[in-house]
Structure formats: C-alpha cells, structure tokens
Amino acid sequence: MPNLLLDCLPVEIFYEILSYLSGGHILKAFHSLNNHFNNILIGYDHYILDLSASDISKKEFDLICSFLRSEQIVGLQFGRNYFDLVNRFISNFSNRQSLNRLRSLWIDDTILIDQLFLTRLVSIIDLNKLVSIRFDRIYLNHFNTSSRYTFDSLKHLVLCSSRQFRLLSKQIPTHLTFLHIFSDSINVMDQFIRSNMRQLKSLGIGLHCDSNNIQQFTKAFSNYQWTHLIQFNLRLNGKYIKITLSFQE
C-alpha cells in the first residue's frame, strides 16, 4: 500500500487521537489502511469497546474479536442489541486470556445482571481490579456469600440498587471519588457516604424517603464532613415528599 504523510507523525499523536474514539470506530476507520496503521493498532493498549451501540455490524464485531488481544481492552460498555454481541463477546473471550487490564465496566438497563449472567461475566473479568463500575439493572437472589468481591480498586460507582450491590460486595468500597446510587435505605446510604466522604468529589443520591424518616435523613447529612466535594445531586421520593436538588462548584 502507498505511504501516507500521516505515516511520518509520531505514534504518540495517534495514541492521543485514538483515546477519544471507541474501539469499534478505531478499527473501522484505521484497520488495513497500511502496515504502519496496523502496527499502531496492534501497539495501542487502551481500547474502550461499546457493545451497546446499534451501528456495530457482525463483520466489525468479528474484527474486534479476532484482532484485539485481551490485554488491549481497558473499558467495556454492555447493552443488548440485534446481534446479541455481549453473549458472543463473553463466549469468545472465555476461551482466551481474561481481560486482566480492564478498568471500566458499564452494563446498561437492557441487560439484567443476575446470578447466571454474573457467573459468565466473572469468567473473563476480575471485578476486584475494576476502577469504574456502572450497573443499571441488577438482581441477585440468594447470592453465594463466598463469591463476594472486595472491589479494592474501585473509585467510580454508579448503581441502581445499593442493597443489591451489598449482596455482591464483601464490604463498602472505601476509595470512591464518584458515587451515584439509588439507596434502598438511609442506613445503607449512610454507610456508603461515611466510608468515602473525605475523598468524594461527586455524589448523587436517590432515596425513597417519607415523613417518618426525613428527620433521620437530615440528621445524617448534617454530620457529614466534606473535603473535596464539588458536585452533589439529590432526589428524594415519597408519599408526601418529592425533592430534587443539585449543585456544582
């Protein structure tokens, strides 16, 4: 293939450009342009894959699975689509080396995270190494307590249910800087916040709260000591109460 003027640019510039693109779009745009670009794609090790996207063709998905090595993938977004790509992806990578450099995982509300799905998921992903998790729909019933996770590396957490996450975790994560959750109770909310309040930068709370426990809620919040908080979102829902509040420095 002919050489391009772009071939003269430092590889680091291409890596910076690729960091703004999803893994599927990177391969679609640059794969097989010439040997130089292929070598760049082989050396790049910060691919973030969005498998919830509706514009991924089977051909593009097959290229992702055949071209990328497990250690090149650092981020995943899962969602249901026409080709059932998530199940195909898990099946493909379960026969290979696990995604040991994965740091970010987002599973949207089109996929139910239940016991069966989680069992398949952890066959390719070490949840304890994740830095960022977003679970939009989770239901674990009678979860095996011996299989709980420590989430030692977790800093960014978005949850639809604090109670369901507690079934999954051995303890409350203590290194969170970003916490947005729907909490099933004020006590659980308090546990999450107190364990992380000194380093939290962004906090979002959704909570069912009525006239019987609003005093408990306000008392808990009055005792928190914020050090780094710059963004706060609050949504209270109840029979006689509906409050939405937000601020950002």
Q: Estimate percent helicity.
A: 25-40%
Separation of termini?
A: 52 Å
Give the biggest beta sheet.
9 strands, mixed
The total beta strand count reads: 9
Q: Beta-sheet strand percentage?
A: 15-25%
Could you tell me the radius of gyration in angstroms? 21 Å
Low-confidence runs? none
Task: Write a structural description.
This is F-box domain-containing protein. By secondary structure, the chain is α/β, with parallel strands linked by helices. It has a domain at 1-44. Helices cover 31% and strands 20% of the residues. It has 9 helices and 9 strands. The N and C termini lie far apart (52 Å).
Task: Please specify the SSE layout and strand pairing.
Layout (H helix, E strand, L loop, with lengths): L10 H8 L4 H8 L4 H9 L3 E4 L7 H10 L5 E6 L6 H9 L10 E4 L7 H7 L10 E4 L20 E4 L2 H7 L9 E6 L2 H9 L7 E7 L5 H9 L8 E7 L4 E7 L1
Parallel strand pairs: 1-2, 2-3, 3-4, 4-5, 5-6, 6-7, 7-8
Antiparallel strand pairs: 8-9
Helix pairs in contact: 2-4
Using brief descriptors, characterize the structure shown.
single chain, alpha/beta, 9 helices, 20% strand
